[in-house]
Design brief:
Elements: E1 2-9, H1 15-21, H2 28-36, E2 41-48, E3 52-59, H3 62-77, H4 81-87, E4 89-92, H5 94-104, H6 116-130, H7 136-156, H8 165-177, E5 184-188, H9 192-203, E6 208-213, H10 216-225, E7 229-232, E8 245-248, H11 259-266, E9 274-278, E10 295-299, H12 300-339, H13 342-367, H14 372-400, H15 406-416, E11 424-426, E12 432-434, E13 439-440, E14 446-447, H16 457-461
């Protein structure tokens, strides 16, 4: 059994390539069906976000699987084959698992420890399940990935440290006010940074939003976004008294908020606390404001220091997350290796059951009319003999499945016990394939899995 992943992300391909390889939600059903129509692919999932497109697949042959998926991406996007090969990466077996687990944990994201990607991995998997594109191997792989993503966040706290300027402002506000519920914010300037900071504050409980900008139309537009109100720019100092938090980010070349304005606003409320965040360069708020009792002032350098410190915390957490990932990779790889011998184990147990039933029928026929109790005793004895006889070879085969000699012992077992019915099927061209799973593709075509690779047992033992 082989798992592979082919993809591009923000580190390997420019946006003009990524956008051509991306999949919309509406295109996923047809894309998954077309992939499943390829005999080499037994199950698959497509993850498509703004920063990555990745196809994970359980395949019968690694090289053929990689070639098939790259060809699929070429026809889908119109990008030349040479460019597809240049920009896409390919992982196989345990490297596929490790890559997916790192993606789910947020370690492969543009923003280290990003939370959103885990939800995107989960959604991609559930969509593939809904369209019946997954199989046992893909299901197990993605369940491990989702487990890793959850553990990485709960056990390391990798997503609990703000690493953006706008969210760092929220983190500082929480340190001052503890609970932001019901607090009000005065936003000076209607640019992107002001908008992002206000958005994070509102998401954390701030309810009153006042916006002031030189262009009153833009102020009204931003205020509507948060259910707030716009005030004229030359009157903003009148609203300082009503604000718990002030965010300022304008293009002014002089101080927009003066110390005298703040002093006047706080005079009627000597015990009032106010937090002021100056994100502008040049600064909007007179540094002298920070010396006024009750006022806490942060500038862009203060926020950047918070971001830098938090990024270091995330890097420490990432090291812990890598340990969780390796643990889960080992567990998945062991499970995957074990699947290789399961058809042989099943065939061996089936053979033992057939022999037991045949000999039981023969013995009971010779014994004639015996009691039900005696029949049960004989049956129990026969079951115990078969189970004890097969226990050691089955256990040893499962142990060897985790070693490089696993395939040899598997085939030796099949030869020694004459297991000709290890769930094999014969294809129309006369070649024998292992039928570990059979599925129906888009056009109703039966598809078989991994080809049987018989080692020369006789040659090895000669």
């Amino acid at each position: 059994m082989s798992v592979i992943s082919i993809g591009v992300n923000h580190k390997t391909a420019p946006v003009e390539i990524r956008e051509k390889l991306s999949f919309s939600d509406n295109s996923l059903p047809d894309a998954l069906a077309r992939l499943l129509d390829q005999p080499v692919i037994l199950g698959c999932v497509i993850i498509s976000t703004c920063n990555r497109t990745e196809i994970y697949a359980h395949v019968t042959d690694i090289e053929s699987g990689i070639e098939t998926i790259r060809s699929f991406l070429q026809h889908k996007s119109g990008v030349e084959a040479s460019m597809i090969k240049k920009y896409t990466y390919a992982f196989t077996q345990h490297k596929t698992a490790r890559h997916l687990f790192r993606v789910a944990a947020g370690l492969d994201s543009m923003l280290l420890g990003e939370t959103q990607i885990l939800g995107q991995v989960r959604t991609a998997y559930h969509l593939a399940q809904e369209y019946k594109a997954t199989d046992k191997v893909i299901n197990t792989l993605f369940k491990h990935a989702i487990t890793v993503g959850k553990r990485a966040r709960t056990e390391t706290g990798i997503d609990q440290h703000a690493v953006s300027i706008s969210y760092a402002a929220v983190e500082l506000a929480k340190q001052i006010f503890h609970d932001l519920t019901g607090r009000s914010v005065l936003v000076i300037g209607a640019g992107k940074m002001s908008e992002l900071t206000a958005k994070h504050l509102v998401a954390n409980g701030v309810s009153g939003v006042i916006v002031s900008n030189r262009s009153h139309d833009r102020a009204e537009c931003l205020a509507r976004q948060f259910g707030g109100r716009a005030v004229k720019f030359d009157e903003l100092h009148r609203y300082l008294e009503a604000a718990d938090i002030v965010i300022s980010c304008t293009a002014a070349t002089h101080y927009v908020v003066r110390a005298s304005d703040v002093q006047s606003a706080l005079s009627p409320k000597p015990n009032k606390k106010i937090m002021m965040i100056d994100i502008a360069v040049p600064r909007d708020i007179d540094p002298a404001v920070g010396k006024i009792p009750g006022v806490t002032l942060y500038d862009i350098d203060d926020l950047q220091n918070v971001v830098d410190n938090n990024l270091m915390e995330r890097k420490r957490a990432a090291i812990m997350a890598e340990g969780i990932i390796e643990e889960q990779v080992d567990e998945f790889v062991q499970w995957l290796d074990m699947q290789y011998v399961i058809p042989t184990v099943s065939a061996l147990k089936k053979r033992g059951e057939e022999i037991k039933e045949r000999e039981m029928a023969r013995a009971l026929g010779k014994l004639g009319n015996i009691s039900e109790h005696d029949r049960k005793v004989i049956g129990s004895m026969a079951n115990n003999i078969v189970n004890q006889l097969l226990h050691t070879p089955v256990t040893r085969l499962k142990e060897y499945a985790l070693t490089e000699q696993g395939p040899l012992y598997k085939e030796a077992m099949e030869e020694l016990f004459c297991l000709d019915d290890v769930d094999y099927l014969v294809t129309p061209n006369g070649h024998t394939n292992v039928k570990q799973s059979t599925k129906v593709g888009k056009h109703g075509k039966a598809q078989a899995s991994q080809p049987k690779r018989r080692a020369s047992i006789e040659g090895y033992l000669a």
